[in-house]
Amino acid sequence: MKQRIITAIIAAAVFVPIVIWGGVPFIILAYVLASVALYELLKMRNLKLLSIPGLISLAVLWIFLLPEQFQEFLDVLHYSKVEFALLAVLLFLTYTVGTKNRFTFDDVAFSTMAILYIGMGFLYFIETREAGLLYIFYSLFIIWATDSGAYFIGRKFGKNKLWPEISPNKTVEGFIGGIICAVIVALIFVFTTDINATLFELIIITILLSIFGQVGDLVESALKRHYSVKDSGSILPGHGGILDRFDSLLFVWPLLHFFHLL
């Protein structure tokens, strides 16, 4: 626990000021986090980042993350992000032939999905910050409230397992408790900020985001269980890897936009 607290304090001391500052430093932070998350995800399947498919994945991820104000070179090349992704798929498939199927079709699918999974989440991390600092803190606080509520309420009252095949410690009571705590945070935002939503709208959106945030956590747990990995990485002592810390938010940030909250 001491190690977790120390790591959390150091990480917050780096993360929060850059998020508040925004601009290019924030975009660089998003790129670094996404790159590390991609490395962790590829490593689960024993794919190396410093390899031809790994570098293709990284290059396409970086293109995918480009904010609108930095997309001039795409216009010059007359290519869209989608076209770069499709080109990557062709290169991956070509590499299966070049390696005589040591890099398999399953590896192509995994690498493509890894780019989309990580890229979508961190692209909308950047887009959310562009929409305003308020929405970044809203997303962070409701997920922190969800995680804390699920942990403490589940520990105190949890009796019914939520999904033992994937995450044996999570309970239905904790799941519901996390949603309740997130709604409490949403009420604070409604009455203390100028967030662009009515009370009813924000409660509904918060419930959905809390649910999908917990789903995001379960998705990463399912990945780790499938590949027999305890943590996605060790860059954050006591917490695991970047994916371990951002799994819920990778679902929440896109949904903030899909629900038209911003």
Which quaternary structure do these chains form? single chain
Strand content: under 5%
The shape is: globular
Number of strands: 2
State the helix count.
Answer: 11
The run of helices and strands is HHHHHHHEEHHHH
Task: Report the helical percentage.
Answer: over 70%
How confident is the prediction overall: mean pLDDT? 91
Radius of gyration: 19 Å
Summing up helix and strand content along with how strands pair, one would put the structural category as mainly alpha
Protein model, in words:
The protein is built from eleven helices and two strands. With 262 residues, it is mainly α. The protein has two domains: 1-131, no CATH class; 132-262, no CATH class. A two-stranded antiparallel ribbon has the order 1-2. A hairpin with a 3-residue loop joins β1 (161-163) and β2. The radius of gyration is 19 Å and the shape is globular. It starts with a helix and ends with a helix. The model has no long low-confidence stretch (mean pLDDT 91).
List keywords for this structure.
single chain; 262 residues; mainly alpha; transmembrane; lipid biosynthesis; phospholipid metabolism
What are the SSEs and their pairings?
Blueprint: H1 2-21, H2 23-44, H3 52-64, H4 72-77, H5 81-98, H6 105-131, H7 133-157, E1 161-163, E2 167-171, H8 172-192, H9 199-226, H10 242-246, H11 249-258
Antiparallel strand pairs: 1-2
Helix pairs in contact: 1-2, 2-3, 2-6, 3-5, 3-6, 5-6, 6-7, 6-11, 7-8, 7-9, 8-9, 9-11
